[in-house]
Amino acid sequence: MNNFYDILKQLIKIPTVVGYEHSFFMYLKRELEDLNVTVEYYDGVLVAKGNNPTSGYISAHSDRHGLICTGHNEFQYAAYVAKNQSDLDNVSNRNQMLKNFEKRFVNQKVQAYEPWSGSYLGMGTIENAFLCERRNNIIFKINEFDHLFPGTPIAFMDKLQIGNETIAAQLDNVLSVAILVYMYELGYQGTAFFTASEEAGKSWRFLLEYFRRFDITTNELLVLDTSPYKTIEDIKLLDIVLRNRDENAYFRSPLKAKIKKIALKNRIKYHYKDEYLKTIMKQTNTKSSLGITELGRIISASKGSIQGTTLQVPTIGYHTVEETALIQSIDSILLVLQKLYLEEKNV
Fold this sequence. Notes:
Blueprint: H1 2-13, H2 22-33, E1 38-42, E2 45-49, E3 57-61, E4 66-71, E5 74-77, H3 78-82, H4 94-105, E6 109-113, E7 120-132, E8 137-142, E9 153-156, E10 161-162, E11 166-169, H5 174-186, E12 191-195, H6 203-213, E13 218-228, H7 232-236, E14 240-242, H8 254-265, E15 270-272, H9 273-284, H10 294-301, E16 306-316, E17 323-326, H11 327-341
Parallel strand pairs: 3-12, 3-13, 13-16, 14-15
Antiparallel strand pairs: 1-2, 2-12, 4-5, 4-9, 6-7, 6-9, 7-8, 10-11, 11-17, 16-17
Helix pairs in contact: 1-5, 6-10, 8-11
């Protein structure tokens, strides 16, 4: 497991702001090729292939939240820029969002990088976040960044914190990327997809386009990610998070039964996130979304020619540099993956 955390520590240091993932993909490509893995790069998706590419299809988005320079000493949330959301007209809780951003990001250290090469362009600190009423959007101020030009990505700076029971960093979704690299170290010979712009709602298009490009169909696409919860007590009740469905589609894959069987056999604690959310809605007498996932969009758009399921690590502090997961959860997800793809005949 020390190798896994070494991989994770290094990947965390490489910036990959949503919409500006190229330099991270180049770093990842080198690391995978060093493991004798074949790597192909398409628009919005880096594809890794072992010696038996059809033995598994696992996906993880590679982008992370960050900021983008939009003018002289002016910065906006990169996910909004990447999905061409120029204002917050369709966001009902703008003021609450601003408060959340202030709580998460003010006084946060950040680094600027050249989007193509990944070259370091300087370090700064977020001084303020405010709602510009004229433009109806949230603007960030960062010291020491007067020299930057529009289009420069700004990544949050953090490093992996390892405690007795937990790890913390901006885990979404570098944790899943590290898991996939580690799986190749362990001998995984299937295919892995590293997608771009998931935080802007675009990654599913890149992955679906890849499947269509090569006329590939499968009912065993496994999508890895983190899944947010409110308290440490919540995630201590869980090791892994599964789903029957999301807002867009039902997940109908043999992988669901296989993962459940592995979990039961190895005393891995799990629940289905959609059922959990329905229970909360019933208890609070409210109606809300069951969540939108990359996989659900792919299933819906492909009309079921691509099917699969999700496997997620429960976390708290979602979308911050202090997102926290239990080490037990990481051990559990690695065990499930090894049983599925390295020891399947023994499941």
